[in-house]
Amino acid sequence: MRVTDVFLAFPGLILAMAVVAGVQRRSLAVLVVAIALRWWAPYARIMRAQTMAVSALEFAQAALASGASPRRVLFRHILPNTISPIVVQATLDLGYVILTAASLSFIGFGVPPGEPEWGRMIADGRQHMRTAWWVITFPGLAILLTVLGFNLLGDGIRDVLDPRAREAA
Q1: CB-based contact 79:39 (threshold 8 Å)
Q2: pLDDT in 10s for each residue of the chain, 169 residues
Q3: What is the Cα 140 distance to its own chain's centre?
Q4: What per-residue string of b and e applies to 95-107 under the rule 16 or more CB within 10 Å gives b?
Q5: Which residues contact 70 (CB under 8 A, 6 or more apart)?
Q6: DSSP code string of 19-42
Q7: How far, in Å, CA of 112 to CA of 137, rounded?
Q8: Residues 139, 122: Cα–Cα separation, whole Å
Q9: What span, in angstroms and rounded, lies between the C-alpha atoms of 17 and 37?
Q10: Sign (positive/negative) of CA torsion 165, 86, 116, 37?
Q11: Cβ–Cβ contacts within 10 Å for residue 154, how many?
């Protein structure tokens, strides 16, 4: 968890900029790796906390006491009960990942010129903003609607998977 804390200490956009700047040939794969270097840490913390909480519950302790191997308890009892927060976090984070990728492309650290990317489209259309407003408006709206869609999807999945929300209703 100390390595995770180190990765959480760096701002995501600056870490991604440093990784992309250090690579000679830019591509979408490099952009994905640069963004993933920062985004794995919260998932590791969530998974560790959920695993510790679920493994302390009675059904996991009972499975161990009945003679099940720790591996079986992990894969049959603990992992299925810890995956829902990860799924919810992933759908909520997709919007932030899209915004980070668009931001990196906007400031010139994204995909190379010639490859379609919303941030690059907005950056290329800045000089035509007064005469051709639609050049930057529609990529911006695409980013907005995509991020909004993923956030609404994450909220919906959280509502479906959260047992406390079902008990309160």
Answers
A1: no
A2: 888 888 888 888 888 888 888 888 888 888 888 888 888 888 999 999 999 998 888 888 898 888 888 899 888 888 888 888 888 888 888 888 899 889 988 988 888 878 888 998 999 888 888 898 889 999 999 999 999 999 898 888 888 876 665 555 5
A3: 20
A4: bebbbbbbbbbbe
A5: 64
A6: HHHH-SS--HHHHHHHHHHHHHHH
A7: 21
A8: 7
A9: 11
A10: positive
A11: 19
| Residue linked to tokens 């992992």 | 79
- Measured CA to CA in angstroms, residue 25 lies from 91, 115, 121, 163 at distances of 30, 13, 20, 47
Which among 19, 14, 12, 27 is positioned nearest to 97, based on CA atoms? 12
Q: State the Cα–Cα distance between residues 111 and 120, nearest whole angstrom.
A: 8
- Residue in 79, 70, 84, 97 with CA at minimum distance from that of residue 16: 97
Q: What is the DSSP letter of 112?
A: P
Sorted by sequence, the CB contacts under 8 Å of residue 113 that are 6+ apart come out as 120
Considering the entire predicted model, what is its pTM? 0.77
